[in-house]
Design goal:
The protein has 128 residues and is an alpha+beta fold. It has one domain: Metal-dependent hydrolases (TIM Barrel), CATH 3.20.20.140. Helices cover 29% and strands 25% of the residues. It is globular, with a radius of gyration of 15 Å.
């Protein structure tokens, strides 16, 4: 696998941008066949990387929910928990521990926080 196959997320670039208060408007996992087994794994892992790099959690949540929905014109349905919206949600736990994350350039970052899925609500039903 080449670096291009793994994705484009690099800790060094992210650190420099966040240090200048430049945050991503939209966050996705960059998940595909060559990154599902690492370094992307899933969206909570990507969110955890940005959290440990210093991006505020509320900004991360907006960048994975409201902002993408707004970009495709669905902010009043998909990007909202207002009455009448779809209201599907994923509840994440923020856990403390010792975690090791990797970027697409094989750089590693030790971290103390990680977001993990707790449960989802889809069509009004709670699912494990």
């Amino acid at each position: 696998m080449s670096l291009n196959d793994a994705g484009i997320f690099g800790f060094e670039t992210a650190r420099k941008l966040l240090a200048q208060d430049v945050e991503p408007d939209i966050i996705s996992s960059d998940l595909h066949a060559f990154s599902v087994d690492g370094p992307a794994f899933d969206l909570p892992t990507t969110m955890s990387k940005l959290l440990n790099l210093g991006m505020p959690l509320d900004h991360i949540v907006q960048a994975v929910t409201y902002n993408p929905a707004k970009a495709i014109g669905y902010e009043n349905d998909l990007g909202s928990l207002e009455i009448g919206s779809t209201g599907d949600i994923t509840v994440l736990d923020l856990i403390d521990g010792e975690f090791l994350f990797q970027d697409c350039f094989n750089k590693e970052m030790s971290a103390e926080k990680r977001l993990v899925p707790a449960f989802i609500v889809k069509d009004g039903e709670t699912m494990a």
